[in-house]
């Protein structure tokens, strides 16, 4: 038995309040790359509800120097020290605990706790990083106020930041200085932050609706100071939106954002001092794509919205993570929908949910949005907690309407401001504010897996009645994880519309939301003159897989007529999925590939329909991703799926070559780069069209792509062209890759794109390139963005990662083992690419399983990777 096999999970049912509360904390940091001294003075008071004189403080990777209670230093026999913390015994009712510890930021490659990034100091405390800074009650239900003194070298650390207000500063001897910060709001330790180093500030202001001026500060490395304006404007828009839509105002006088190069996630909402992956801050048209701009705005908004949903009202324990994350994702989705196009945003979000969360929810990591157990909490920052969590919040919104939802939010803040609460508290606020029973909604929090919604229809001409029978069920899941057994029907709001089968017109009186509260129910629509065509699950009103037998004509009809844009798009995707899976299966049976005429005609209609906005049209012309198609196959066959999809792309391009060419030419005539929504939409469509044209193996098409690459005045067009060239076997490819590298070699975020386009190439020799790129001087396993852009992107390349000889699997496993001890979180995210192994053929299954076993047997394997691998192998 290896050491890791004895790791015990933490259970939701084990929650107990702490034995002591913390009344306030004073922290002092004497910064040094290898030996930072952290002094903590914690004022504690016994929790009258948990009478005990014993206090357990969490602590990891700390070199303890001393412990004192009320100024009296303790001897070694007066406390118990373990690898994961210390226990203090016989404590009085209230006292001050002082600890001094040494930590080593320079050698901390886990990017959790206090670490160095590009020579600057930075912290990451969520979920359990604070215990790597000092001994503490490192749990979200312990909220307290912080006063933080930072001392550091004036030359290397001219800037020293922490949460709240800067209340004092002075110079010290021997070239050091000191700054003191105080945060008036009580907060859990996971929201603590410290940043110190050589940074420059891009400043702005925001005046709140009650007239307070807030200083906005974006701190970046000096060379990036010209890339902050978009982030600043995004922050101002977010602040205004939260006031307008939810009546929520910012509470401190200063809001700081720091961009760092080494970060495990997107960004972190520390109180008043957000720390961001630089990818979600820095942007200029020459270095960031339209998508990057959109993501920056969304992530800035997300972190800002956390100030109320997460910080002012936080989670009682980590099992409640979706309380803040599902809600905040929903809020950022609504924000982006308001800034751009609601329909396009919804389609993008549902595509992401289907590609990521649906896969997670049907494999060994399936868990309820409120998990029941974990070994490493870091493994539960998942698509399920975030994205499915947001879908659950959206269902409250659908059922209650915007006003009812707002009433629920108001009551939630009224009841719980400055406290740490549960998902049940949120559900109760929504119910009580609207006088509605949400008891059954509890099931959405405790059950894992994606429900299937089967819909059948019937038409009674004699009675002029049309009926939809809806039945819900759960597919069985592997692994026997909590939440995957004994599942009950969940409340499903199903948005429905009926269309006149002749004219395609909406039959208004029958549009709306029906509630499926039980396993099965029939909804009858009367007074119809003829059998209508139903549009079901409009706007993707519930996170389910819809099963409805539709013939191709009906899907083509919905593609052409549905006035719910989401379903209009989805009908096209459903039709394409049906045809492509059939084509892929046919290949295995030796059937020749053929483009469906129905699909060709439907595609042609979309192409010539000028009523769509360009971004919607771009989506409607795009075939489902290979990974989404794979989910619909009994056994995923990556090769035949790829061949069938490529065949369709090529045939469509051949059939519509002249229409596509003139559309491209029209869009390409837009002139110099502009950043307004219309221009962004037009670039999106232009690059979808270019992608079709690029698969025609003719010199004119290749030079069109190459010309776009060389002439582009913005990164969107440049990167799109480069990705297309990367798929080809032409000299223009190597020339473009070399030119791109040469132009951007000093900008790490752009070089990440250079790695990713190569890792995502559909060329058969991609794996060889990926291997070569791992020895490129710019590749570093210490930088998560770089690892994700090469190894992470490669695992998303379904046809090449799942190459039949297993070389892709070996490459991934080798990298997981290379990085697991330094950065467990990153390694665990990468290894999750094996989670779907049971969905493949026997040979691939065995090869992936063998790699998983090899990883599992690695001596001293970190617990993050251990948890993912043991679930997969179970
Ligand atoms: N709360 C952040 C995400 C985040 C989570 C964990 C981290 O380190 C393990 C870092 C960031 C958010 O939702 O934006
Ligand atoms: Zn978040």
Structural write-up:
This protein is an alpha+beta fold and 874 residues long. The chain has a domain at 10-198: tricorn interacting facor f3 domain (Immunoglobulin-like, Sandwich). It is built from 26 helices and 31 strands. The strands form eight sheets. An eight-stranded mixed sheet has the order 6-5-9-3-2-12-15-14, with no helix packed on it. It has a five-stranded mixed sheet with strand order 17-18-19-21-20, covered by helices on one side. Strand 7 and strand 8 (85-88) form a beta hairpin. The radius of gyration is 28 Å and the shape is globular. The chain starts with 9 loop residues before the first strand and ends with a helix. Residues 302, 306, 325, 328 line the site of zinc ion. O-methyl-L-tyrosine is lined by residues 124, 126-127, 264-269, 302-303, 325, 378, 381, 825. Residues 553-874 form the Peptidase M1 alanyl aminopeptidase C-terminal domain. Its cofactor is Zn(2+). Residues 233-444 form the Peptidase M1 membrane alanine aminopeptidase domain. This is Aminopeptidase N. Keywords: Aminopeptidase, Hydrolase, Metal-binding, Metalloprotease, Protease, Zinc.
């Amino acid at each position: 038995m290896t050491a890791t096999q004895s790791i015990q999970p933490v259970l939701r049912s084990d929650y107990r309040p702490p034995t002591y509360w913390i009344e306030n904390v004073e922290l002092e940091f004497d910064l040094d790359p290898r030996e930072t001294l952290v002094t903590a003075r914690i004022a504690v008071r016994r929790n009258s509800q948990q009478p005990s004189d014993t206090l357990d403080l969490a602590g990891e990777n700390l070199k303890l120097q001393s412990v004192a209670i009320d100024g009296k230093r303790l001897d070694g026999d007066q406390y118990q020290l373990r690898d994961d913390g210390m226990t203090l015994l016989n404590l009085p009712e209230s006292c001050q605990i002082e600890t001094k510890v040494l930590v080593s930021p320079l050698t901390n490659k886990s990017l959790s706790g206090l670490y160095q990034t590009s020579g600057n100091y930075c912290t990451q405390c969520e979920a359990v990083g604070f215990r790597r800074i000092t001994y503490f009650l490192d749990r979200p239900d312990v909220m307290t106020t912080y006063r933080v003194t930072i001392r550091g070298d004036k030359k290397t650390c001219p800037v020293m930041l922490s949460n709240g207000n800067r209340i004092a500063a002075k110079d010290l001897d021997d070239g050091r200085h000191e700054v003191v910060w105080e945060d008036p709001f009580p907060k859990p330790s996971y929201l603590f932050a410290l940043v110190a180093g050589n940074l420059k500030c891009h400043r702005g202001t925001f005046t709140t609706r009650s007239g307070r001026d807030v200083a906005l500060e974006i701190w970046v490395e000096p060379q990036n100071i010209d890339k902050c304006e978009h982030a600043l404007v995004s922050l101002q828009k977010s602040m205004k939106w939260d006031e307008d839509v939810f009546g929520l105002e910012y509470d401190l006088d200063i809001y700081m954002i720091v961009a760092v190069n080494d970060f495990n996630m997107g960004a972190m909402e520390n109180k008043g001092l957000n720390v961001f992956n630089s990818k979600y801050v820095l942007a200029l048209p020459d270095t960031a794509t339209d998508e990057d701009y959109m993501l920056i705005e969304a992530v800035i908004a997300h972190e800002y919205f956390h100030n109320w949903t997460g910080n002012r009202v936080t989670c009682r324990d980590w099992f409640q993570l979706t309380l803040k994350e599902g809600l905040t994702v929903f809020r950022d989705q609504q924000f982006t929908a308001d800034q751009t196009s609601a329909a396009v945003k919804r389609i993008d979000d549902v595509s992401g949910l289907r590609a990521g969360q649906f896969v997670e929810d049907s494999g060994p990591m399936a868990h309820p949005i409120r998990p029941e157990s974990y070994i490493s909490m870091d493994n539960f920052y998942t698509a399920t907690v975030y994205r499915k969590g947001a879908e659950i919040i959206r269902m409250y919104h659908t059922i209650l309407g915007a006003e009812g939802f707002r009433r629920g939010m108001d009551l939630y803040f009224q009841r719980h401001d400055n406290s740490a609460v549960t998902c049940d508290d949120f559900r109760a606020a929504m119910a009580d504010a609207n006088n509605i029973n949400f008891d059954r909604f509890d099931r959405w929090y405790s059950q894992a897996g994606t429900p299937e919604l089967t819909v059948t229809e019937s038409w009674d001409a004699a009675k002029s009645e049309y009926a939809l029978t809806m039945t819900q069920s759960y597919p069985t899941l592997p692994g026997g994880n909590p939440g995957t057994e004994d599942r009950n029907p969940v409340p499903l709001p199903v948005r429905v519309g009926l269309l006149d089968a002749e004219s395609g017109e909406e039959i208004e009186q029958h549009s709306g939301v029906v509630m499926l509260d039980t396993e099965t129910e029939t909804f009858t629509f009367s007074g119809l003159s003829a059998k209508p065509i139903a549009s079901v699950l409009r706007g993707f009103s519930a996170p389910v897989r819809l099963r409805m037998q539709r013939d191709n004509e009906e899907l083509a009809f919905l593609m052409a007529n549905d006035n719910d844009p989401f379903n209009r798009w989805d009908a096209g995707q459903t039709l394409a999925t049906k045809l492509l899976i059939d084509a892929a299966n046919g290949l295995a049976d030796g059937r020749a590939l053929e483009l469906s005429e129905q699909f060709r005609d439907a595609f042609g209609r979309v192409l010539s329909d000028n009523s769509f906005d360009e971004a919607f049209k771009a989506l409607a012309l795009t075939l489902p991703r290979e990974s989404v198609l794979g989910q619909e196959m009994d056994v995923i066959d990556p090769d035949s799926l790829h061949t069938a999809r490529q065949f369709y792309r090529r045939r469509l391009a051949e059939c519509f070559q002249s229409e596509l060419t003139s559309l491209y030419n029209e869009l390409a005539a837009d002139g110099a780069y502009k950043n307004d929504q219309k221009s962004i939409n037009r670039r999106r469509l232009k690059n979808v069209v270019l992608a079709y044209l690029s698969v025609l193996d003719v010199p004119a098409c290749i030079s069109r792509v190459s010309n776009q690459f060389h002439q582009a005045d913005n990164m969107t067009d440049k990167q799109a062209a480069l990705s297309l060239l990367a798929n080809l076997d032409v000299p223009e490819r190597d020339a473009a890759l070399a030119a791109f590298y040469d132009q951007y070699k000093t900008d790490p975020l752009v070089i990440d794109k250079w790695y990713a386009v190569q890792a995502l190439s559909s060329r058969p020799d991609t794996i060889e390139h990926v291997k070569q790129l791992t020895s490129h001087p710019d590749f570093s396993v210490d930088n998560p963005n770089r690892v994700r852009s090469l190894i992470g992107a490669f695992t998303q390349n379904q046809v090449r990662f799942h190459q039949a000889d297993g070389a892709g699997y070996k490459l991934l496993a080798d990298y997981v083992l290379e990085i697991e001890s330094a950065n467990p979180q990153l390694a665990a995210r990468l290894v999750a690419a094996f989670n779907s192994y049971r969905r493949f053929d026997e040979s691939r299954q065995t090869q992936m399983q063998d790699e998983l076993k090899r990883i599992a047997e690695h001596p001293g394997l970190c617990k993050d990777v251990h948890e993912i691998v043991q679930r997969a192998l179970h």
